[in-house]
Amino acid sequence: MIPPTQPDRHSDVGAYVLGVLDAADADRFERHLVGCEQCAAELEELMALTPVLAEFKQSAPTPETITAVPGRRVLDGLLDEVDATRRSRGRRRLFLVAAAVVLIVGGPLAAVSLTGGGDKEPAPPLANAVRAQYAAGEKVTSVDPETKVSAGVSMAARPWGTQVVMELANVKGPQTCDLVAVGKDGKRQTITTWAVPKGGYGMPDGAEKWNREPLYASGGAALNRGDIDHFEVNTLDGKRLATIKA
Fold first, then answer.
1. Longest CA span, the chain
2. Got the DSSP string for 98-144?
3. pLDDT at position 176 over 70
4. pLDDT at 2
5. Residues 6+ apart with CB under 8 A from 145
6. Count H helices, E strands: the chain?
7. Interacting residues of 84 by C-beta distance below 8 A, sequence separation 6+
C-alpha cells in the first residue's frame, strides 16, 4: 500500500505570516517550523518586510478605487474569522517566532548555509532585496578601535519613521546581539536582534563562504531621521561592539 502524500509544509510560510491558515494547518505548520531551518529562515525574511508593508499601507488603494470589490458581508466575515484565529493563538505564535529567530542564528542572509547550498547556490531573492535596500539608503559606517567590528547603517525616511538596514563584519561568535537607535533626546529603540554563530560574519579567513560574508539585517525605528543621534551594536549581555554616528 502506497502511503498518502504528506502536505508540503515548506509552502505554508507566507500563508502563516498573513494569518490565513486555518487552526489545524497553522498548528501543523508550527510543529514543522520548530525543526525546519529552511522555513525558519524564510519566516525571518518575511518578518523583515514589516516596515515595507507599513509603508505600503500608507499608499494602498481604497476599496472604492478597486474595480472588483467583494461584498461587505463577505469581507467582514473573512476579517472576523482571521481576527478570531489570531487572538486565539497570538501568544503562542509570538513564542514560536522568537524560537525561530534563535534557530536560524544569523538572520535571513544565512539561509544559503542553513539549507546546505554551498558556494554555488545564489543568495535568496529577499536577501538580495535587503542588500539593495542597504545600497540605496543614506549610509554611515564605523570601525570600532577596540573590537575591530565593522558596522554600517543605511537609513531611509519613511512615513512611519526611519527604515534601517545594517551591514556587520569582522564579528566573532557565538554571541547574541542587537542594534539600537539612540535619539538626540537619549531615548533608545531596538531595531533588530540576531545571533552570531561560532564562525562569525565578515571574517576574511572564515571556514565557510557565509562566514566570510557580512551580515545584513533590516528593521525600522519610530524616529524621524533627524531625531537619531547614533546607533549601537551591543551583545545582549551588555558589551558594546560598535557605535555608528548618524
1. 69
2. HHHHHHTSS-GGGHHHHTT--TTSPPPHHHHHHHHHHHHSEEEEEE-
3. yes
4. 43
5. none
6. 8, 8
7. none
Interatomic CA distance for residues 108 and 110, integer angstroms: 5
**C-alpha torsion sign, points 115, 119, 124, 130:** positive
- Least reliable range by pLDDT among 79-93, 173-187, 194-208, 224-238: 79-93
Cα–Cα nearest to 200, from 140, 135, 113, 142:
113
Which one-letter amino acid corresponds to residue 112? V
CB atoms near residue 174 (< 10 Å): 11
Q: Given the C-alpha cell 509603508, which residue does it identify?
A: 55
What cell does 233 get? Answer: 551594536
Which H helix or E strand runs over 15? helix 13-18
Amino acid letter, 136: A
Beta bridge partners of 162: 157, 221
Q: Which of 201, 123, 216 is nearest to 164 (CA)?
A: 216
Show the cell assigned to 191.
Answer: 531595531
Q: Cell numbers 540605496 correspond to what residue?
A: 136
Residue corresponding to grid cell 505548520: 29
Place of cell 551591514: 167
64-91 burial, b at 16+ Cβ within 10 Å, e below that, comes to eeeeeeeeeeeeeeeeeeeeebeeebee
Tell me if 242 sits within 8 A of 151, measured CB to CB. yes
The CA radius of gyration of the chain, in Å to the nearest whole number, is 20
- Going by C-beta distance under 8 Å and a sequence separation of 6 or more, which residues neighbour residue 17? 43, 46, 47
